[in-house]
Amino acid sequence: MLAKLLQPVISLALPPRCAGCGAIADDDHRFCATCWGSLRFLGPPWCAACHAPLSYEPAPGTWCAPCLQAPPRHGGIDAAVAYGEVARAVALRLKYGGRAAFAETAARLMARHLAADVDLLVPVPLHRWRLWSRGYNQAGLIATALARLSGVRVDAQALVRHRATQALRGASGAERRRVVRGAFAVPPGARARVAGKRIVLIDDVYTSGATTDACIAALRSAGAAHVAVLCWARVLSDRDD
Q1: Are strands 226-234 and 160-161 parallel, antiparallel or unpaired?
Q2: Among candidates 240, 239, 232, 237, which has minimal Cα distance to 39?
Q3: Which residues contact 135 (CB under 8 A, 6 or more apart)?
Q4: What's the CA gap between 42 and 79, in Å, rounded?
């Protein structure tokens, strides 16, 4: 009751802000018209395997050339938006700026990509040293928000990063794969919770796929039946435009 009475005062003193630029917005977790208009929402037409956007309408089940050359182990890579200026601002403010509320902002736009048959949400984990220094895992916050919105269970202990790795910003795809190879594992106590499950791996930004591929390898080795990827923003290559 007190919260309801005070809400108009709080809203006046601390009005909702655009998640992209900080301008006053209509409501929490909303964007101003300019930032909203600059977001590129992802969806079909796309490759049936990796969900990379295509500039033409393919026949059902069509795979892109990279997937035909190297069939992926994942069950699709979905993202709310393409990585761009506004998407980057949201990701950086969540990851480094302590803006934990932006996890729900991202989750609200990611939720449409969740399939009806998903059993479990698993966030990409941080190594314990990085978790202690940052104070939270942005992928875990997004997964928790998605669980609240969708009702799908989240298991933040199903996957661990048991080896610390160097920062990957600016690294090539090959370098990223080398750094994260073998860095993730499913703890023995979590294997039963993973085996036979249809899992969605949650992260903030999908870049080269090196980190998620390493996570998927660990989950599949533990018996996961299917692992898809869902993130806030996806960095698109030239072939995806």
Answers
A1: unpaired
A2: 232
A3: 98
A4: 7
Q: Count how many residues are written for the chain.
A: 241
Cβ atoms of residues 67 and 221 within 8 Å = no
Name the amino acid, one letter, at 31: F
In whole angstroms, what is the distance from residue 71 CA to residue 69 CA?
6
Q: What share of the chain is helix, strand, coil (3-state, %, to 5)?
A: 40, 15, 45
- Exposure letters 187-214 (e unless 16+ CB within 10 A, then b): eeebeebbeebebbbbbbbbbbbbbbbb
Q: What is the pTM of this model?
A: 0.87
Neighbours of 14 (CB within 10 A): 8
- pLDDT per residue over 102-134, tens digit each? 999 999 999 999 999 999 999 999 888 777 878
- SS3 (DSSP) at 46: strand
- Residue (of 47, 49, 59, 18) closest to 35 by Cα position: 18
